[in-house]
Amino acid sequence: MIEYPPRLTLANLPTPLSELKRFEIDGFDGKVWVKRDELTGTEVSGNKIRKLEFSIAHAMEEGCNALITCGGVQSNHCRATAILGARLGLKVHLILRGEKPEHPDGNLLLDHLSGAKISYLSEKEWRTHEAVAIELQRQYLAAGDKALFIPTGASDEIGLWGYIAACEELKNDFKLHEIEPDYIVTATGSGGTQGGLVVGSQLFDLPVKIRAFNVCDDAAYFEEKIRDDVTLWKQRYDQQLNEDQLEIATIEGYVGPGYGVAGQEVFDIIAELARSEGLFLDPVYTGKAFHGMVSEIQKGDAGQLSGARNVVFIHTGGLFGVFPQQQNFSFD
Fold first, then answer.
1. Handedness of CA 158, 219, 128, 125 (dihedral sign)
2. Structural domains in the chain, sorted by start
């Protein structure tokens, strides 16, 4: 029995596990299942809320009344933090990577509507974002507030709990549907979801391989990042875990032009899945990972999902990221 640290009930859980019925993959007669984590909420949809249930609970335990976090201009995590802060009566300050647009849309529009304060850093300035966060904490403290800094994606030893807990949920899903999946597939950008799945699959003895498709950085980065987070997790929570048995497998080759920038093949598969299943992906995370999954399945035994019969895709949300890139879809 896993003893969880303090946790807030913020997400609509459990989310469904659904089989794709009409989307077809050439040469594949197995099944693709989707863990519908885009249904964790409406405005706060996606995977970030699972991690924030633990991160914000920790902030409240520490007596904080403000949250500082960071990410890209269209960050799903920052949007989720801004909205949850408004719901819980906490001040939120976002440090966003990129230039301030003339007209905010997508996630950024929701950040503004939620009342979050926003600081913008250029790509060149981004390396200083942690120092900026420390200075903001000092300023908040001088004004009588206490602010917790939550790293990008809430991906640290606290945020790991989000998808450790999700593995307990997945174990019940597999029992309910009477399946033993070969692979669980996810997008990975800051490593927290991937890390939680890797740790949780071991803790709950899930007979499944975890495979992540990176949307930035490379496999070596995620190997180091997740192992560092796991080490801190073990120390903070006095957990026993055989780190030598952790398989951190990141499938490269699907980042495309860069983080937040997708090739036409990603927009095509987003549209195809929407038409066939009424299921919507985004071009930053889920679209790239889903495209990568389909491509690797089509390679058969030569691919990195060889032997797949049942594959579970973690839908980590991101719908609002579609709107700023709508010009990349073609309509008849």
1. negative
2. 17-46+160-328 (3.40.50.1100), 48-154 (3.40.50.1100)
